[in-house]
Amino acid sequence: MKPIPDKNILLFKSCLISTEYPGVESSTKYVFDKLGIEYTIDHDQSCCTGLGHYSDVFDQESTTLIAARNFDIAIKNNHPNIVTMCATCYAINKKAAKLLNNNEKIREEINTVFKECYVDRKYEVDSIDPTENIFHVVEIIYNKKDKLKDLIKIELSDDLKIATHHACHYCKVFYNDTIGGVRDPNILDKLVESCNLKTVGWFNEKRTTCGAGFRQRFVNKDLSMKVSSEKLISLKDVDILIHMCPNCHMQFDRYQPYIAKKTDNTFKTMHINIMQLIAMMMGADIEKVVGLQTHTIPVNIKAIKNEDKWKKINKAKEKLERKKDKKL
Amino acid sequence: MINKKTSNKDDSKLKIGVFICRCGGNISDTVDIEKVKSNIDAEVVEEFENLCSINGKKNIRDNILNNKLDRVVIASCSPISHEKIFQDYVKPLNPYLMDMANLREQCSWVHDKDKSTAKAITLINASIEKVKKSHPVNPIVCQIPESVAIIGGGISGISAALSIAKTDVKTYIIEEKATIGGNMVKIGKVFSPVKIAEECSLCLLNPLINETVWEDNIEILTKTKVISGSRKSGTFSLLLEKSPRYIDDALCIACGKCNEVCPVKVLDDFNENMSYRKAIYKPFSQSYPDAYTIDMENCKKCGNCVKICKMNAINLEEEKELIPLNVGSVILATGHKLFNPKARPEYGYERYDEVITQNELARIMGVNGPTKGELKIPGSKKAPKRIVMVQCVGSRDEKPNAHKYCSKVCCMVALKNANIIKHKYPDTDVIICYTDMRTTGMYEKYYKHCQDNGIRLIRGRPGEIIKNQEDNLVVKVEDTLTREFVEIETDMVVLSLAIESSDGTREIAKQLDIGLTEDFFVKEAHPKIKPVATDVKGAFVCGTAQGPKDITESIMQANASAAKVFELIHKGIEIEPFIAEIDYELCNNCKECISRCKHKSIYIEDKEIFIDPMSCSGCGECLSVCKQSAITIQGNINEKIYATIKGMLKNKQKGEKKIIVFLDQIGYTAADNIGINRLQYPESIHIIKVHSVNRVTPDHIIYALKNGAEGVFIGEYPGDLMYDKVEKKINKLKKYAEKQGINPDRIQFSKVYIPYFTGLAQKFKIFDEKINSISN
After folding, report:
1. Quick one: how far is CA B743 from the chain centroid?
2. Which ranges carry the Cysteine-rich domain (chain A) (predicted)?
3. Contact list, B402 vs chain A (CB under 8 Å)
4. Which residues of chain B make contact with A202, given a CB cutoff of 8 A?
5. Residue of chain A whose Cα is closest to the Cα of B401
6. How many interface pairs between A and B have CB atoms less than 8 angstroms apart?
7. A64-117 pLDDT per residue, tens
8. pLDDT for the residue A6
9. What is the CATH number of domain B1-137?
């Protein structure tokens, strides 16, 4: 396995997490603190361009330029280990670092832009190593999974069926850097197990994409929803689907009621990010830290602790959903 | 012999004859032969129109005898083309007391008139200095034992054994399993390259097995493994471990009574674990030895078999046996294994009984298989209405845990099994999902024949195989020709698994220190022109141990490896004498040399170090690590290099520039090619041919630079085993040179390739210009 850091980490902010599921970021910080991982957040950091890039709004050069800017911020902040909470940020940054290190022409072009804009920034070759400086947050936790076990305070009922959804841009872009399998991805399964829970393991369509496909969700909505519905159908008897990417999370959580209606199905699957699950299992506050109130599908888990609080939150949520449903 | 006498003479008193060839004008039109002759100081200086002719031979020999010449310089064409001829022409002189000055390819063909004459004089002078230091040496002849061990008793091993044994050479087949026959016995039918038909594989193999058994020169050792091995001077010493059969195959009459009374039932691996056998069993009816054996892992030692055996052939307490074996050659015929289908969870092999492999299908279709040849869905008694075959499972796959190569036979295997099904069950729908159909040559006709028989083909790799709500298998695949996604409901799925290197291949390669490819198949000495030799002299490979291939190809390779074994055995091998030797009075057994030898030539036996003359290349790497200076290389090569440098730099004129170039056989051939193609390079370039570039020491280079050479250029073919070593050495030397006050830019290391002679000429030119800029 590649070396994984536990300090000098720049927790790379994600647009989708900040706007859709801020609980993922607060959960990550909570878990990092509990595990004694040293990190910082730099508010100068900008979006990776991912959504825009895969929707043909930002070309590779602008994307690489923005990555170079973010790398420079990380280095100047003395936190050169970039850790992303989103699989797209992960792959976008890795690709940009590879390009910057291996393609002198692009590197020069980008440094020229910095110069022409009078910004005090520069990308030095090999200053960010795509394998040894860029990580997904699950890898940082995976490295500490033994320590994690000791920090679990909550129990969930045994009959919960938990499945995992491994993000494409974590498993299917940089194969050689992926931890826990590419053919049969299981890094999330292993982390769930560290929380004293079991997963269903392999299931039909385990490796199938969430269907979001960035612009596909907007310009090819039928195709996008078809893929998502196939996966949801194969997950019909699953209670919780564990995520590691806000885009997948959003696709399922926000569109599940829509797909249910369209396909005349009922789904019971709840969607939680792995960091939310871990924080929850460590006993974090459901609203203030885990932030489950921002989810569309109410998270209604019979936990041994905090049960009442969830009920309250979820009742309110359900009301809200019913209103939304009518609008749809 | 004259050799002994002359070698003791003082250098200056040696009588040297120089014979200059006009080469029908090729040399004399450009080089002023008269001027050359008047500038050469030698006992005899002769010119001749065509020195390589029979008349030339007479002239050389008469001069040697009449003038009692000690050394000869032939100034003619390149030694690459005529060295062997002139080594013969200088008889009775020792062939290594002659040297050739290359006045054609590296002089008259690359320089114009005014420059080539001076160059010719220099080249001849260098050869004169070199031959003065030459010692008479004789080629070494190695004789190897006339016996062969073949590791693996499949179709490749059997074919090689038969081919060798028929020439009266003792052949041992060492087979780990209880019977010989290998994978071919299981596959039922084979596809025929020319006939558009499937043939019974056992009917083809069985006569070969019988022949192997009857052949007196073949000894078959079943249930036997090589547990250690080493190779010294052309002899392989193997240690074999023979596991007990518990049944004396000389007594057993294979009546099968023991089998009837055995109470233990275990899964039968002959039938891919789809049926049962007893703990006392015979792998299949035609297996050899024609005797039962006991699977001790499962035997309960109840003694029923012992009681019923009338031949008293059973001994439950038999122990394993160690057998030492010395042979002259080894042939690796260790076969292959198949990709583990569990590594593709999306295909559901572990979850669904109806998902099987091609090998399992072959057993189901085999009349001696678990269903006696009746096609049934595993786990049910029904016949399938539809079968989907999935190609390239584990092959042609760029992702991790897969093989990038094509397994070569699976397209034909799938078509064969599909066609057999179509033939017996015409109503069964067979669909093959493929990546590309690879049915080259005559197989294309078979492919067309299968299509005509109604086998359906979809170009696409299934993404996933699932069971739908009706509990039917569904293959999800994109038809990449129509670009449509299809979901095929089916009763059965057959996976075409990749061919992988077998565990046996990896084990024996490790024991004998034989190189493997990145895919763990046995690596050939050269993939193009030495397809059955390995990097260990005397060890050969055939069949799927070397890579995926079909039966026909395996047999061809088996026969080729047999031919290579004859080459070794027939007359022994004659080796160029410039190889390393150990002085045992000096050697202190430090063993430093062993790991340094890239040619795997040095070994230790009875605590003494030996160098195998058969594999030593004479690169001299061991000399540099030997602190005791106990290793020498015959032929006085070190001194000869100094002398040649000295000769090249002799009579250097004021303002003249000389660059010394060291090239081995490959580089020298590339340099010859410059001349053959009549390209030019600066006359400052003076090429010295060396046996191995590694023999050029830092001292040689410093000597050249301190004694008049403006630059030194070392060229090496990157495919040479010593390339990395030499490159590192030169980089180190540059730093050392700097300390000595020599500009390191005066030393250049460069890659050379035979066909890339224009590049070499260009490099000479650039280096010459660089040297100019340095001296200015």
Report:
1. 42
2. 10-91, 163-253
3. 183
4. 345, 351
5. A183
6. 30
7. 999 999 999 999 999 999 999 999 999 999 999 999 999 999 999 999 999 999
8. 95
9. 3.40.50
Please count the CA atoms within 13 angstroms of the CA of B565 that sit on its side-chain side. Answer: 35
* CATH classification code of B652-776: 3.40.50
Per residue in B684-731, pLDDT tens?
Answer: 999 999 988 888 989 999 999 999 999 999 999 888 888 888 899 999
Q: Between A175, A184, A204, which is nearest B466 by CB? A: A204
A206–B467 C-beta distance less than 8 A = no
Name the residue ranges covered by the structural domains of chain B. Answer: 1-137, 144-204+213-227+321-335+502-571, 244-319, 339-498, 576-627, 652-776
Q: How far apart are CA A26 and CA A276, in angstroms?
A: 9
Which residues in chain B have their CB less than 8 angstroms from residue A182's CB?
399-401
Residue A303, pLDDT above cutoff 80 = no
Question: What is the pairing mode between strands B170-174 and B539-541?
Answer: unpaired
Kind of pairing, strands B336-338 and B499-501? antiparallel
Answer yes or no: same fold for B1-137 and B652-776.
yes
Maximum mean pLDDT: which of A11-25, B356-370, B593-607: A11-25
B746 and B774 Cβ atoms separated by less than 8 Å: yes
Instruction: Domain A153-327: state its class.
Output: alpha beta
A237: chain B residues, CB-CB within 8 Å? none
Q: Give A-chain residues touching B467 at CB under 8 angstroms.
A: 204
* CA separation for the pair B596, B591 (Å, rounded): 9
Q: What is the CATH number of domain A9-137?
A: 1.20.1050.140
- Judging contacts by C-beta atoms under 8 Å, the chain B residues touching residue A175 are 399-400
Q: Which residue of A has its CA nearest to B402?
A: A183
Q: Least CB-CB distance to A205: which of B351, B400, B464? A: B464
pLDDT band at A309 (very low <50, low <70, confident <90, very high): low
Question: What are the structural domain ranges in chain A?
Answer: 9-137, 153-327
Greatest Cα pair distance, chain B, in angstroms, is 103
> Residue B17, by phi and psi: left (phi above 0), alpha (psi -120 to 50) or beta?
beta
Determine how many CB atoms are found less than 10 A away from the CB of residue B573. Answer: 19
Is B576-627 assigned to CATH 3.30.70.20? yes
Interface test with A, best of B350, B351, B399, B483 (most A CBs within 10 A): B399
DSSP string, B37-68: HHT--SSEEEEES-TTSHHHHHHHHHHHHHTT
Q: Which among A176, A204, A206 is the nearest to B400, CB-wise?
A: A176
CA distance A9 to chain B (A): 28
Q: Residues with Cβ < 8 Å from B142, sequence gap 6 or more?
A: B233, B234, B572, B573, B575, B613, B614
pTM summary value:
0.79
Measured in whole angstroms, how far is the alpha carbon of residue B650 from the centre of its chain? Answer: 44
> What are the pLDDT digits (tens) for B503-533?
999 999 999 989 899 999 999 888 888 899 9
Cis peptide before B92 (omega within 30 of 0): yes
CATH class of domain segment(s) B144-204+213-227+321-335+502-571:
alpha beta
Q: Indicate whether B193 pLDDT > 70.
A: no
**Distance between A227 CA and the closest CA of chain B, angstroms:** 12
In this prediction the ipTM stands at 0.80
pLDDT tens digits, one per residue of B128-173: 999 999 989 887 877 788 999 999 999 999 999 999 999 999 999 9
- The shortest C-alpha distance from A172 to chain B (Å) reads 9
In chain A, the percentage of residues whose pLDDT exceeds 70 is 94
A175:B345 CB<8 A: no
| Minimal Cβ distance to B344: which of A175, A183, A204 | A183
| CATH entry, B244-319, from 3.40.640.10, 3.40.50.10170, 3.40.50.300, 3.30.70.20 | 3.30.70.20
Most B-contacting residue of A179, A182, A183 (CB-CB within 10 A), to test interface:
A183
In CATH, what number does B339-498 get?
Answer: 3.50.50.60
